[in-house]
Amino acid sequence: MHKSWGNAIEFNEGADKIGVDVMRWLYVTHQPTDNLLFGYKIADETRRRFHLILWNVYNFFITYANIDNFTPLKTTNYQLSALDEWILARLNQTVSAATKTLDNYDAFQASHAIEEFVSDLSLWYVRRSRDRVGPSAPDNQDKTACLNTLHLALTTLSRLLAPFTPFIAEEIYGNLTGEESVHLSDWPKAKRLTSADAQLVADMKTARKIVEMGLSERKTHNIKVRQPLRRLTVNSLSLSVELTQLIKDELNIKGVDYKPEQKELSVIIDLSLDSDLVAEGGMRELSRQVQEMRKVLNINPTAYISLASPTIPTGILLEEFKRRTLTKEVKSGPELIIESI
């Protein structure tokens, strides 16, 4: 890029088109010993890799906090799940890493530690918490724990981001706290991780690896995740009940068997289907179609609906379907039609 070649980007034009927070993040996450091939394409990649993911997490929280009339609790007299404890441990790790590296004037390492945390927050914490919030959530105490954890994570994260991306940090922090400015707040302080916290972080990494291997097996055999399967066998280790439940939920598996006597980590999935599994898979597929139609028809997420469908779940699957989709009335019909009540 050079002015004499006619491909130079004037600063004001670049700042307007790219966005100054994106431009800042593009520079701080780049290895300072390497040349930066500045341009709109790499700026778009930076935006997709970080800013859009962060904003989607923030939007997820705002959406369900408003739906559930959430008010942050100053006390911690609610039970945290293993997932909550894990993301808070990762948050403490990130605060510690960012503080240490910035004290050494190393914005590159600090920004990458923050980026890895945002990835964990989005791709695992929020992903596994979608059923914990909203009007169809089965446990109000767990919902409170989830929303409080997300609120703490986002307000702390915005303070970490203030020196790097001051505008998005100001927007998030101001809206979530009502305080004057994130730039007038104190820098967050990391709590020392206990041995249990460190073990949880390591075990969650293993659980995610097992999920990755399980999803690969499903893809190899062309079986969608919406189709439940009976059992997963994990060789070489065992995990806690809560982490096992996360694996079961993410892989849509009814049970997990551990064989810790094996040396190498591997997974085996029972791919056989019976009538009960096929019926549940059909219920999940119908639920997906209904949720997609709700979005297309712009039906409020809290609104109950009535529907007609050529296929209708029966028994406990019908009750689960109605809970998932906020359906009050179900009747048979030649095609899928939904209406807000």
Strand order, biggest sheet?
A: 2-1-3
CATH topology description of the largest domain: Isoleucyl-tRNA Synthetase, Domain 1
Mean pLDDT: 92
Number of helices, counting only DSSP H or I runs of 4 residues or more? 11
Please tell me what the overall shape is. Answer: globular
The CATH superfamily of the largest domain is known as Isoleucyl-tRNA Synthetase, Domain 1
Structurally, how many domains make up the residues?
Answer: 3
Structural class determined from secondary elements: mainly alpha
CATH class of the largest domain: Mainly Alpha
DSSP E strands, number: 6
CATH structural architecture of the largest domain: Orthogonal Bundle
Oligomer: single chain
Strand content: 5-15%
3D architecture notes:
- The longest helix has 28 residues.
- 26% of the residues are buried.
- The chain has 341 residues and is mainly α.
- The strands form two sheets. A three-stranded mixed sheet has the order 2-1-3, covered by helices on one side.
